[in-house]
Write a structure and sequence with these properties.
By secondary structure, the protein is α/β, with parallel strands linked by helices. Helices cover 36% and strands 16% of the residues.
Length: 198
Amino acid sequence: MKALIINGHVPYEYAKGDLNAELVCLAGVALDNAGFSVETTIAHSDYDIDAEIAKIIAADIVIVQFPLYNMSVPWVLKKYMDDVFLAGGDGRLYSGDGRSRKDPSKTYGSGGVLNGKPYMFSVTANAPSEAFDDESQPFFEGLSVSELLTPVHLAFQFNGMMPLEVFTAHDVHKNPDIETDFMRFNMHLLSIIKNRFS
């Protein structure tokens, strides 16, 4: 089995990316221990687009690790998605948008060719957990982290991929509990490995 981990962090002076790098490392260890061959891509590196398409196609699971920046992904991860997914529109990741003049039952977004390949978002966020999933909280108005990331999910699903449950480490700047986050993350991954690949 093969796994691809994409580190979508972009380093800044105030956020060097240590936590995201550590979560990438933990994911790699958990997957390696479960018998996966693990490849890692750093989105702010000089990746090869065709090689990234090949990695996605070969992977049995894709894990995308990133901090929540401006309620979405960092620009380097968006650039990676734009570069790789656009190039993969030649039939390697998707073939058109799915619609067909000959078959009106084929709908927009059904052109993905990755046949339900699972992907998982692992997110670090300054926002506390209580800011989400609660309609009494005014900012997110009851949205979950996964719902907040709907456009990012749809970009992966356009390729025919299917989401796994999002993992989030909350309050990582103002009130961090990193050791607990690491334990939760490991349990999250082990549960996915057991339920999906055992």
